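Note to self: keep these together.
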Amino acid sequence: MTDWTAIGITLVKLIVVIHVLLGGVSVMTLVERRLSAIIQFRLGPNRVGPFGVLQPIADGIKFLMKEEMIPAEAHRPIYILAPGLAIVTALCAFSVVPFGPTIELFGRKIGLVILDLDGGILFAFAATALGVYGIVCAGWASNSKYALMGGLRSSAQMVSYELSLGLSVVGVILATGSLRPTVIVEQQAGWFWHWNALGGGQILGFVLFVVAGFAETNRLPFDLPEAESELVAGYHTEYSSMKFAMFFMAEYVAMFTVSALAATLFLGGYQPGFPLPLEGLALALVQVAAFTLKVAVFMFVFVWVRWTLPRFRYDQLMDLGWKRLFPLALLNVFVTGLLVAFDVI
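Structure:
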């Protein structure tokens, strides 16, 4: 018999998470512009509203009002589909990330995760891997050499770094014995030295995951697919109005997803890192706040690195992925396997 209540609860969680993520995107546009201004000794946006806090609303209105241009020789169906494909895959990957514990409301237990899957980690990586299709389709369908080159660069980059990204997580899976994100978080409960990146012996895996995560989200210093000095704007050169904004949103949602996965797999997820004399809803609120804080720190690092480091050359990008990260990721899997076999961790 269909449990309509469970379906309704899942839909509510889905709507809330999507709105929080898209709201976070608008906030991050302001945060990025203000932080970049501070780093570069500028003022940044400070005219729209007090201290410029209404700038994201002005940007949204601007994107809605701008004229939408579609190249005459573009492949219209795929050209229109590509931005939606990019943002939907980024949102799907977040659906298996637990942002809080199981709580009890109105006599019913509700897990603060949209999909609590046994193979949740596999689902997340499958969804992030599909994100490259939106970029490649945008580059090909635009019928522009700059956009096509950006799409090809993105496909090569994401394939290269997905290997290291996936292998960096294998150590966590070996140590915890589960692919379910909620189980991985629960095994990191207690003090912060129980986190996988610290007491779990996965500090190398954590570093590899963060570096590969930068490459997967096409952020500096890995933004070769949209290098403005070489490709005008890369794969989204021919996009304008809200279609361009959707690629922009997809990049930030992907950053949120990578940050949430890094916190979940290596830094205890919603576990605050120390025992709390709380229980019930109060404890759940603190744990959700702890998860939000960890994601916010990662988002700050994304912005900090973008406005600090220069862009790699393409040969340096490939060299780092295949000759540095990939061997280190294999080494991490081998060492973790030995430690698990001898019951060290």
